[in-house]
Design brief:
Chain lengths: 203, 206
Amino acid sequence: MSTYTLTYFNGRGRGELTRLILVSAAVQFEDVRVTWPDDWPGTAQADSPLGQLPYLTIDGIKITQSLAIARLVAKRFNLAGSDDLEQAKTDAVVDTITDLQNAFYLVAFKDEPDALIAKFIAEDANTHLERIEKIVTLYGTEGYSVGSSLKWSDLHLFDITSTFLALDVNILDKYPRIQAVRRTVESNDKIQAYLKDRPETSF
Amino acid sequence: MPSHKLNYFNLRGRGEIIRLIFAAAGAEFTDNRIEFDQWPALKADAPLGQLPYLTIDDSTHIPQSMAIARYVARETGLAGKNNLQQAQADAIVDTIMEPVNYYWSNIFKIQDANEKAEAFKAFLVDQGAKGAKNVEKLIGLYGSNGYSVGDSLTWADLAVYDVASALLSKHPEFSDKFPVLAAVYKNVLANEKLANYVKNRPETPF
């Protein structure tokens, strides 16, 4: 059996999706959380293939890029979709959610983000959320973003929308299918146990 | 194999990688190029109101250029030989897309021609060069002999080609600075079907 080590900052960010996938598949993995300024940049950056995090080390081989990593473990543990077509739909849902994540990160990590974040929530977030609602309605069933069983797209949806709920508790009110997928993930035993114990982090 | 129709503008942009995969594999597809004046009437047909999207067997529609490209790569055997190689190909494509997406979000939209030219020059030296170096690093880790991953053609090579060809036509000196990318570029052009497609494709501004 392979050994998995995820190396990322002590935060959710671009690493949490892979953690959620491994947790929901009950896969043992080493969850290396890099802190700055102690570990990063320093040796932790030198050890990473492109000087960026996350990266996944599988049996000594380092894979970079958060979605490439997540997709790999999702495929290995049957959370990617049962055939090429289902996998393509799952990828499309993931990419639509990532569009929201990337757009948000463009404002959230600036020096004085509060006004920008408020503007994002008021103006841009809904355009993305509407697309997510649309595509999960197109490909999924009640409680699932694609087909009728748990996929990594459900976990990504849960992870990213959690950030927005923390900023505006009403932001998902207009999106019943998004809410239904969140309930599926939240009621998963292994995810529940993981969420109870995971460190509280600022991002 | 199911029937495939790619719906995109009459441009390379975010659609060309998909066309290149079909071409290199010699796989049939309908290349539905939509002109700007037709688009508003057709927008409602697109799952997310955006292009590209792929229509499979006249019934299923997949949006998101990368999801489409990865699916077509898998269907045509150009994704990578196993899950690990597929992850390596994904990682290389994602690394290429970092500066490309930056370009689309920040540079492409600039209206003033002079401002745009200045911003593009700065981008090439900064994000462009950094991105190219990173891709070369991963090819060094994952590939061999002019292939980005393993020892055979994958869509990662076609993604390198797609971006490099846009750049090399305007900045041939690029190939000296990035020999690993230049080797992949040359290798891709050695694929007859692909070379043929490129020779015959419509000339478009981008």
